[in-house]
Amino acid sequence: MSWIREGELTIIERFCANIIKAGPMPKHVAFIMDGNRRYAQKCHVERQQGHSQGFDKLAQTLRWCLNLGIQEVTVYAFSIENFKRSKEEVDGLMELARQKFSRLLEEQENLKKHGVCIRVLGDLPLLPLDIQELIAQAVLATRNYNKCFLNVCFAYTSRHEISNAVREMAWGVEQGLLEPSDVSESLLEKCLYTNNSPDPDLLIRTSGEVRLSDFLLWQTSHSCLVFQSVLWPEYSFWNLCEAILRFQMNYSALQKARNSYLEERRRQEMEKDQAYVTKKLQQEGFASHGDSRRRQTLLQKCTAMKEERIQGFLQALEHKRADFFERLCTVSA
Amino acid sequence: GIFKRNNSRLMDEILKQQQELLGLDCSKYTVEFSNQDKADQVLNCQSTLKVLSPEDGKADIVKAAQNFCQLVAQQQRTHTDLDVNVLDNLLSSTNGFPDPDLVLKFGPVDSTLGFLPWHIRLTEIVSLPSHLNISYEDFFSALHHYAACEQRWGK
Fold first, then answer.
1. Which stretches are transmembrane (chain B) (predicted)?
2. For a Cys staple, A168 with which of A191, A227, A231, A307, CB 3.0–4.6 Å?
């Protein structure tokens, strides 16, 4: 399968894998696959070659992840900022995408066999229409597979993703599906492109750069960040193991930090709900500290109504997104 | 948190250390606290100190989102009005401040732990083992590391 290299680990690799797997393992790893062009320069080949090798390395890395039991991988394939590159390079990358997504569609049997769910995350309308159509086909064909998940960020930046999520909530308010007071961190998360994935446990960036470059800024707030100097096309199984070891060393500190953050968030959202109820009681002319049973009943009622609104909104959003892909598929049919 | 509640104590400590480290030069480097209500103060002074806490991260983005949705509910805005720039301007925790160019991260944890997720999209993240008894050499070498970084901004 072109997107996931066939093959098992060597004996030494398997030995190492077994040692690492004795400790906590990341369930979701994100990669910023940086260094294709520097690699091309180093090897005196064309940039396009560098990108092509980069794709081969992606296929190999996905195989390693599967062998290690890492079920979900997210990769930064193309940033909205990358449109600023020369027309030649952008066209080359689009052509690479065209080839690879077409190939993916030819290998549907294999995808089914391995249960690979492909998702493409980004501002897809920015892409050439034919690529959007290929993407739509790949996403729809694999949407019910659930053995492993590959999320490809294409025409993506985190700020666009977050803005889009806020825009969707505003759309929800406009449609009468949501109240402004329903807006919360947890609701915003459900509106991100990554709403069907848990946050990455581990983010790896290659080529030595130590920045996030507008990738998954929201989702990686409590992830283990590993910056490695190796250029992406030269990434090895040992580099991956090294990153996982760093994850293991950070595991308990990050678990603790993440749990305490979520606890605090839950507490604040509950406080917000209580304040909402207090206001409602005052509006209806009842003393805010009065009958605690009335308060409880009202709180339960408001919470239930909010839940219902949110479910209705999320369903409408899901529908809108599925619709977008389905319409693209009927265009090409 | 603790830092935010003890602004004056922090300022006293900064002034004291400034005198110790810089001697006669210290009057050249004025430090002021940045206060949400007085954004223009930032322009008049050499160094501005802003103390942030987790509520300035995701929670601030949510607050901006809620405010925008309120405007939509009142039909003063439509959802299509919201883009990256509009959202950026609605964030209040860093009003008037540019995005950080450099984050100095102290401690053994390899994570940003929720620090200003929106603002650090292009920020260089340099790690140092500890802020306790940090030497000037270590600090300077972190700045040096930053100076050597090559930003391509996607190009």
1. none
2. A191
Q: Give CA–CA dist A32/A77, Å, rounded.
A: 8
The domain of B138 spans 100-154
Paired with A116 in beta bridges are A148
| High-pLDDT (> 90) share of chain B, % | 45
Global confidence as pTM: 0.92
So what's the ipTM on this one?
0.93
**Domain membership of residue A166 as a residue range:** 11-331
Query: Which B residues 40-79 touch A at CB under 8 Å?
Result: 54, 57-59, 61-62, 64-66, 68-70, 72-73, 77-79
Q: Is residue A5 part of a domain?
A: no
User: Chain B contacts of A214, Cβ < 8 Å?
Assistant: 121-122
Largest CA distance in chain A: 78
Nearest to A163 among B58, B62, B82 (CB): B82
Residues B57, B41 share a domain: no
Option in B64, B87, B154 nearest A81 (CB): B154
List pLDDT tens digits, range B90-103. Answer: 997 667 788 999 99
- Identify the pLDDT of residue B36: 47
